[in-house]
Amino acid sequence: MEKTTSYLHNQPVLFGKKFMWDLCVGKVKAMADLTPLFNVKSVAIIGASNKPGKIGNVIVKNIIESGFAGKIFPINPKETEIEGLPCYSSVSQAPDKIDLAVVCVPAKFCPDVMEECGKTGIKYAVVITAGFKEVGPEGLELEKKLLFICKKYGIRMVGPNCVGIMDTHIPINTSFAAGFPVQGDIAFISQSGAMLVSIMDWAKSIGLGFSRVISLGNKADLNEADFIDAMADDPFTKVILCYIEDVHNGKYFLEAASRAARKKPVIVLKSGTSQAGALAASSHTGALAGSDLAYETAFTQAGILRARSMTELFDLATCFSYQPLPKGDRVAIVTNAGGPGIVASDAIEEARLTMARFDKETLDALRANLPAEANIYNPVDVIGDARADRYAFALEAVLKDPHVDSVVVLVCPTAVTDPENIAQRIIELHRKYPEKPLLTAYMGGMTLAKGVKILTRAKIPVFTFPEPAIRSIAGMVNYVRRMESRVEGEEIRYDDINPDKVKAIFYDVIRDRRSVLLGSEAAAVAEAYGISAAPVKLAISPEEAVALAESIGYPVVLKVASPKIMHKTDVGGVKIGLNNAEDVRNGFIEILENVQRYLPNVVPYGIEVSKMMPKGTELIVGMTRDMQFGPLIAFGLGGIYVNLLKDVSFRLAKGITHAEIAAMIAETKASTLLRGYRGEQPADMMSLIDMVARAAKLILDFEEISEMDINPVFAYPDGYSALDIKITIEL
Amino acid sequence: MEKTTSYLHNQPVLFGKKFMWDLCVGKVKAMADLTPLFNVKSVAIIGASNKPGKIGNVIVKNIIESGFAGKIFPINPKETEIEGLPCYSSVSQAPDKIDLAVVCVPAKFCPDVMEECGKTGIKYAVVITAGFKEVGPEGLELEKKLLFICKKYGIRMVGPNCVGIMDTHIPINTSFAAGFPVQGDIAFISQSGAMLVSIMDWAKSIGLGFSRVISLGNKADLNEADFIDAMADDPFTKVILCYIEDVHNGKYFLEAASRAARKKPVIVLKSGTSQAGALAASSHTGALAGSDLAYETAFTQAGILRARSMTELFDLATCFSYQPLPKGDRVAIVTNAGGPGIVASDAIEEARLTMARFDKETLDALRANLPAEANIYNPVDVIGDARADRYAFALEAVLKDPHVDSVVVLVCPTAVTDPENIAQRIIELHRKYPEKPLLTAYMGGMTLAKGVKILTRAKIPVFTFPEPAIRSIAGMVNYVRRMESRVEGEEIRYDDINPDKVKAIFYDVIRDRRSVLLGSEAAAVAEAYGISAAPVKLAISPEEAVALAESIGYPVVLKVASPKIMHKTDVGGVKIGLNNAEDVRNGFIEILENVQRYLPNVVPYGIEVSKMMPKGTELIVGMTRDMQFGPLIAFGLGGIYVNLLKDVSFRLAKGITHAEIAAMIAETKASTLLRGYRGEQPADMMSLIDMVARAAKLILDFEEISEMDINPVFAYPDGYSALDIKITIEL
After folding, report:
1. What is the CA radius of gyration of chain A?
2. Could you tell me which of A412, A193, A208, A436 has the C-alpha nearest to residue A328?
3. Residue B97: what pLDDT?
4. Rounded CA gap, B603 and B584, in Å?
5. Do A464 and B269 touch (CB under 8 A)?
6. How far is B201 from chain A (nearest CA, A)?
7. Is residue A425 a contact partner of residue A390, using CB atoms and an 8 Å limit?
8. How far apart are the C-alpha atoms of B401 and B387, rounded to whole Å?
9. Low-confidence winner among A10-19, A492-501, B233-242 (lowest mean pLDDT)
10. Which is higher by pLDDT, A698 or A33?
11. How far is CA B187 from CA A266, B217, B224, B323, B506, in A?
12. Cα separation, B301 vs B196, whole angstroms
């Protein structure tokens, strides 16, 4: 049943399914090897120009100005020299091997140019040119043609319709953006070129440094997964930052992000989460945004930190880039005023961090050396007349304290405050205690501007208000927690499942021209995967019903079996609590008579006889499918109020582990009930985890299951029973 | 039962309860008249000094430099001239009437100084001096002494322990803070002096203007309610901003804030919401922070906008100050890049605003005048090569559109972007269409700095990223919505309640040395207030039980009546579904035997006979009390999972209206059930609203009710029944 996924996701038909299949999938390595791209020694600019302001001119200049030490080959058949460099009529004329081609000729010429690149043995290309997928069907055709050529020659392509790549470590700037970032350790991968240019401009004004900056453009070939994967191993990159509107391929993205997140923080701003945003996203790049639930779940499972706004994205980036990871969640505050200390304390609680409680030694030292009016407990208030010395004393005391994991220093301008000296002392102490994150909020404007500059230059994050500083620490702590709690449990294997039995049942359903399974069929499917369903059998005569009831055991429930009857109770199609053969026989006949009266045109399949199970804690296990990330399994509080209470958590079914399911259950309020609420016995958690795992396996194995709802599942102290199973299939 | 509240809340005992009562409460006007304070024509600085750097010197200089046009009288017995002004030995020596005394002598001299102020007929004082309540019990004594003198002479005092007042319209700066704000229309009232100084410094750097800036200090006399009340009527103030850690008096605060919010936005940052924050707050000002639930509820009911962070507080302040109120929630975006447009669209959805849908005329105009690659639907993408003209065209088109209520312009720096010209055109169009809020996000750094300055000077809010712009619009829309949906319903009056009956029952309980009411007593209390309780009567013999059952009607429930038995079912103290006299008689005896066996030392009061009510939608009605804001009434989903599901909403009981209760019910998921869920009949909403109103009246009338829980209330299509009523009283 497993489907292999094409590199040309969504467009396998163009070149004939079979052909593209052989060419692009299966045996091809999932992630591209981008080492050479980040080590280019020679670059050709195809479409280079002498006209100032033209992109082909800007790029040549940008490469020269970036300090690129390798060879630069401008390509333009009409020129002999560009910006002082000899110009060649085509890449084949260049006197040396070319590592990278930057293409900025008009779109219609791109395929020919790429063909030539291929013949010359060029292996990497950045296509700046626009006018492809983003302009409509014709552009899409052109883009596919271009990609086909790349595939033929094994060229890995960035773009088309991108701003280019900036690399501060080679260094090289193949983009047409004005300005080149400061060298740093943040890799930024952006699906929006404009966003990238904006960010570079803004980052420069606050001195934030980058290692590699990649504009993804239309992602025809190389996409976010390839670059996340490459940046995971990049020694110059400490933090990976992404702005994406969709992912090209959910599976690769998850693989790359999971692997990367184990090595360094991966922070993603995923836009297009709203319906309005998704609409804008698709009118903008032609990308079909996946449902946000799937993204949210996938990000959590991969260990990605999701930024909720651009501000948060860059606050986090700054802190991860500048500061060490905290060892725990205990935060100390040093302030020269009470109010901001309270604001910071509130933010700590809201972010689910812990106010550090100092040890005796720290308190004694603070008590002995701070004025009597100072507050020696966290938040430490060195009060308004504190100069740099007092600040430094308090700060060192809390930095030394083993019960403190990170520190935020708040500075308000008072008559005696000396923001520059305080900044200097903060920097010294950070050097002395480099293992603890140290952030600051300089609360003011002009008065503090010099101090802010000193801190920024020394890579101490400075905020204007306390809350974003605390939120950034929370982000760092969350990353550390996720990495620590990460369970590398193995994918679960089953020896006792019977897929053939499921196929046989589905075959009957299809032969019957149905898509909804009967209750008895659904129960049999569940049983085939080792899910303990309440016994349900189909009877087609009163005698058979009695026999089934006798074999199942009383009391039983009778229910009319027909895919055409949605509300069985309303037509008198259900009888509950039947305790003997007589009641079953009468019930059978009565139901048929009721149905005949209400729905004279419906001929039921028969009557389902099911065991009336003792009541347990009502749960629901369900599913949904996402185009990008495959099936998601759902678990939550069951019963008739499911939609009202919405107490449901989700996980990607693919690769799910028992530990992950346990975490998933723990997220719900239902778990409080399962642990034994108000004196009741706790439920058998292991059996429930096993059940969810089996349900996940079932929906993974059978892509044709479009809907599955098990509601209720009754949880008992010694097991569970899946009562009402609804399965719909779509081939 | 109504208690009047002292101005000296929490400290009425000091001067003898009776005395303070007569002096300060009841007949004294709730809000202070502060008109003269904001129109002072002469000021005395008591403790003025010639020594540079001393507060008494800084204040004199600040008053002079602020451009104060009135008379300035430095007071210091040791000097004859200060900063070029004649100095007087005491206020009584000043040659003219003094409107305001600014006091900065050491704390121990403050009472004498104030006594002299009183004798001289000074009516307003700002006490800068610290060393009062905030330093401990001794300081508190001194503060009370000072307040007593103020009361004696009718002096209204700001502080002590405050930074002072800055007024840009008189103008006068009685503070010791460096710098004086730009004139503007924001009033800022701050409980933290340091915060105030920080904010002034920061605001100056971005050109944000203020009307009046008040440092509350210890709030011994004048507090946030007085100033909010005064600012409500201040013609120079368009927005009222507060930073508070607690409120002095909940009732006055609510009155003032509700009245002010009807006239202009009141935006409050309330810190000390966390336990950690409350701890910091109390170690800082000795203030006891109220529970956050009560604050949240009170703010909502008063129509206050609550800022969640300092950034949000000032983003909102800027937008309210600079821009008109939006007429609705439909937002249009004009951008020169797709990515930021998507980010903005997401933010619009998250903030529950609406993406404006343009009318045909607008779309036609955009289609005809923008390039083919542009997006003419919202967000309008004028694309990267847009210059000021194209921006202006698109902006005017959407500003003109009657389906647009507010507009956000996003600008990314591209090769051709001209941020200054775009800014100029934005300003022109804002002047042409002044009735629609117009915000901008200039996404970049140095490249855009000049444009940002131009916009800021013209009072167009500029953000670096789109999200905070959208959030600010959401704040404005929320204010407008609240003001529109505000129901000025009248306080409910009841002619059919019987407080004497309740008193009689409580008296029995107290005489019995109990605090928990029996079920039958609680039901009787509810009935006395017109709440329809399921019939419950106490029987002390099997015969009586049968007689009661016959009068109530079968089926009935028997329950042992004893305050000492908490879990009645566990000791065999409950029998349900009894259908005849025989069963009732046997049940009675059996229960007594069971109790005798399990708890031989407990002598029950008897057995409660109650009607077994048909099952309805299970609700809970409960309460909690807040020191500041009085009783809160709670409504939500009932049953045994109340604590698990936490589907409960709260309102202050005081002044509650039927409309407010309807809104309160609508906030819960329970309301979905009540409207008729999954084909069930809707519940009788009017009877439920009446019931909540009566419960609110009950807890308002009887402060001694410390706990009340009605769970479940069964809601029916034709009424309701309060089943299990628990009431605890504390005298």
Report:
1. 32
2. A436
3. 95
4. 20
5. no
6. 5
7. no
8. 22
9. A10-19
10. A698
11. 43, 16, 12, 16, 49
12. 27
- The residues with which A88 forms a beta bridge, in sequence order, are A75
Q: In this complex, is the C-beta atom of A414 within 8 Å of any C-beta atom belonging to chain B?
A: yes
Which of B275, B277, B379 is opposite residue A280, by nearest beta carbon? B379
**Which pair of structure tokens corresponds to residue A430?**
């950070």
Q: How far apart are CA B714 and CA B718, in angstroms?
A: 11
- Please provide the average confidence, as pLDDT, over all residues in chain B: 89
The type of residue at A405 is D
**The three-state (H, E, C) secondary structure of B212-265, written as one string:** EEEECCCCCCCCHHHHHHHHHCCCCCCEEEEEECCCCCHHHHHHHHHHHHHHCC
Mean pLDDT confidence for A166-195: 93
Q: Which CATH class is domain A181-322?
A: alpha beta
Q: Residue B291 carries which DSSP code? A: P
* Residue A408 β-bridge partners: A333, A439
Contacts of A329 (CB under 8 A, 6+ apart): A352, A353, A354, A405, A477, A481
R_g (Cα) of chain B, nearest Å: 32
The reported pLDDT for the residue numbered A160 is: 95
Give φ, ψ of B503 to 5 degrees: -60, -40
Architecture of domain A617-729: 2-Layer Sandwich (3.30)
Residue A608's H or E segment, with its range, is strand A606-611
Side-chain half-sphere exposure of A474, counting CA atoms within 13 A: 22
CATH architecture type of domain B499-611: 2-Layer Sandwich (3.30)
Contact of B443 with chain A, judged by CB distance below 8 Å, is answered with yes
Å between B16 CA and nearest CA of chain A: 31
Q: Where are the domains of chain B?
A: 31-163, 181-322, 326-485, 499-611, 617-729
Instruction: Please tell me the CATH code under which domain A535-611 is placed.
Output: 3.30.1490.20
pLDDT(B304) > 60: yes
Neighbours of B78 (CB within 10 A): 8
The secondary structure of A123-161, three-state, reads CEEEECCCCCHHHCHHHHHHHHHHHHHHHHHCCEEECCC
For residues B310 and B319, what is the distance between their CA atoms, to the nearest angstrom?
14
- Whole-angstrom Cα distance, residue A340 to residue A382? 12
pLDDT given for residue A555 in this prediction: 92
Task: For residue B703, give the DSSP letter.
Answer: T
Q: Which residues contact A167 (CB under 8 A, 6 or more apart)?
A: A38, A173, A211, A212, A213
Helices (H), A351-418: 360-369, 388-400
Please count the residues of chain A: 731
Q: Do domains B181-322 and B617-729 have the same CATH topology?
A: no
Distances (CA, A) of B347 to B343, B352, B387: 6, 9, 26
The CATH classification number of B326-485 equals 3.40.50.261
Q: Which residues of B touch A206 (CB under 8 A)?
A: 445
Find the closest chain A residue to B270 by CA distance.
A343
How many residues in chain B? 731
Closest partner residue to A349 (CB to CB) among B178, B274, B414 is B274
Classified as helix, coil or strand, B125 is: strand
Tokens of A8: 């040309």
Superfamily of domain A31-163: NAD(P)-binding Rossmann-like Domain (3.40.50.720)
Interface ipTM? 0.82
Q: Does B301 touch chain A (CB under 8 A)?
A: no
* Peptide bond preceding B74 in cis form (omega within 30 of 0): no
- A237-283 pLDDT tens trace: 999 999 999 888 888 899 899 999 999 999 999 988 666 555 555 44
Q: Does A209 touch chain B (CB under 8 A)?
A: no
Query: Tokens 């919202």 — which residue?
Result: B378
Dihedral-angle region of residue B583 (phi above 0 means left; psi in -120 to 50 means alpha; beta otherwise): alpha
> What distance in Å separates the CA atoms of residue B282 and residue A377, rounded to the nearest whole number?
12
